[in-house]
Amino acid sequence: MKKTIIILLCCVFLICHIQLAFASSGTDDVINSSILLFKFLKPYTDTIRLANGVAFLNMIYQQKIEFVPESSNLTINGSWVRNTSQTTVDMLQNTNVALPTWFSLTKKKGQFVVAVDKRASIDFVNECHSRGIEVWAMFSSFEKKLTRELMKSNKGRASVISQLLQIVDSLNLDGINLDFENMYPEDKELFTRFVREVTTALKEKDLVVSVDVTRPTNDPNNSYSGCYDRKALGEIVDYVFLMAYDQHWRTSPKNGPVASLPWVKESVVLTLKEVDPSKLILGIPFYTYDWLTNAKTGKRHSNGVARSFNQIRDMIAKGEFIDSTNTKVRIKEWYVSPKWHNSQGVSYMKFLGTDGYVHEIWFEDDQSLYLKKRVAELYGLAGICAWSAEFADDSTWKIFHPDLSQMILNSPTEHDIVQP
What we know:
Blueprint (H helix, E strand, L loop, with lengths): L1 H23 L2 H15 L4 H16 L14 E6 L4 H6 L5 E4 L2 E6 L2 E6 L5 H9 L3 E8 L2 H9 L1 H18 L3 E6 L7 H16 L4 E6 L16 H7 L2 E5 L17 H11 L8 E6 L2 E7 L10 E3 L1 H10 L1 E3 L5 E14 L4 E8 L3 E7 L2 H13 L4 E5 L16 H6 L11
Parallel strand pairs: 1-2, 1-16, 2-5, 3-5, 5-6, 6-7, 7-8, 8-9, 9-16
Antiparallel strand pairs: 3-4, 10-11, 10-15, 12-13, 13-14, 14-15
């Protein structure tokens, strides 16, 4: 009891101190004071860290985040995986679920087929199991017409489910992750029926079933959002993955971040109106988009180009990087050097490259990923899952460390970044 009172008093003192500092000194002094106080208080259990996270997010974004102390530990720490090599397994530090993108829907000779990627390997599964990592392989479809055909075919659905059961046995999988996107919104109920049928069949083998959804929008005709009955899906499957990225997608008409913190938080709030938090897993990005503009004409050169953490770190540390064509691009002139973007909750930079293009990048880093993880904790979600392992470097995996907050506070920063 005495310890609890001390903790509560410390939390109140911390929040009051932040508010006073913010009013009199500005953000920099607030952050510096918060760091010192947090380091002093952090031995008093995870409650202090959680309260500090609430105060920080409220201060920076002026938005209320509910304090959910009982949900500070995430059950699921996962990553989607495209390259299932031994190197990838070695990368999956502190995770407990791997989701290889092995299966896709196709049609051959008039028959629905679960196409299996040549990289599907029981060796990968066994290696994951030896490290305590479950494997929930992804089964995907992105073609509207093909998906509709399957949803309307009793025989086709039965065949696909039968194939999945055989594949699950042959690869000794722990679960299946359904990633059906870009569907006709009017097929929403048909998709829900399919998910129910798949779940019923897989549950007979005691497998974990999950489904991926986007955030709700106001457009019921949106083929990437209006196609999901999130409430019904959440009642059927074990977990619902919220793909909280591609706020600005590859072909977006406007440059911007892949997943700003306010947008991610709003996505969670909207989805929680339909899905129980104990079933919701927050999808976070390990990638970012590089927006290229012709330096002479001022016109966009191409759609957003996905960049990895290694490429971003090379830009910052070395002033150069290797692009997707294996060409070295050097930074000729900084327009905006790497800095923390408070209103977006990500970092930002803009420069002229030797390739003749202006590169504008809102990018993820340790700090932005940490804050996304905090949102998942503060709202009592089941966990987080990253898209995808191939974009990460050794440092990126710290996001899954059980005490990331201490690691960030005790680690030197690589660029101008605001610390909570």
